[in-house]
Amino acid sequence: MLTAVSFIDDDSRHRTSTVVRVPNPTAPRPPKIPNRRPPARTDSDGASLLDGDSYTGERYDRVDLSDRDLRHSTFSECSFAGTVLTGADLTGAHLVESELTEVEAAHLTAPRSLWRHTAIRRSRLGAVVAYEGSLDGLVVADTEISFLNTRSGTWKDVLLQRCVIDELDLVGAKLTRVRFEDCQVRSLELTGARCTDVDLRTTQLREISGLAGLGGCTISPDQLTDLSGALAAHLGISVAPA
């Protein structure tokens, strides 16, 4: 797109024009979320769950897994419905093509975990420690999270819908094709983050740290207005009446 910009030469008082080349705005690429049919599953009470084991096609309905050691476990095509995970240790665990619905966890430990083609819906999570984790094809919908630490993690093809997150820590994280739809993020930390095709346009952002991490994100004109003061301060721009 070409835009004509006029300038006035103070000495000659003559108006001159030049053409500035402005790139056309393009929408960010949306996340690629696979469509899957729920597989047949077998009910389980979770009593036999052990760290490091693999489980396929199991349903944990209203099961209390509080404080369970599930480190390096693998859950494939499993379902967690109304499950309590407070204090569970999912360090290095893999959740693949699984569903978590109405899950509760006051605090959850899951560093270096993998969440692939999995969905979390209508859940309430407190402090979630998931640094250096991998989120691939993950959908999180209608969920409240008090604190989410995914420092140095990898987000790829992630969709968040109608979520409320009090604190989201993305320090050093890499995000590709991530969309926040109608979410609220009260505090967003982006220091050292690397973003590509991250869509924040319909999300309420109250406080952002590490503004340089917004590179590669798409925001709305209203969001840009709200962030103008913080961006000016970040760039060292002084704003004063003429």
Automatic annotation (TrEMBL):
<dbReference type="Pfam" id="PF00805">
    <property type="entry name" value="Pentapeptide"/>
</dbReference>
<feature type="region of interest" description="Disordered">
    <location>
        <begin position="1"/>
        <end position="55"/>
    </location>
</feature>
<protein>
    <submittedName>
        <fullName>Pentapeptide repeat-containing protein</fullName>
    </submittedName>
</protein>
<dbReference type="InterPro" id="IPR001646">
    <property type="entry name" value="5peptide_repeat"/>
</dbReference>
<feature type="compositionally biased region" description="Low complexity">
    <location>
        <begin position="45"/>
        <end position="54"/>
    </location>
</feature>
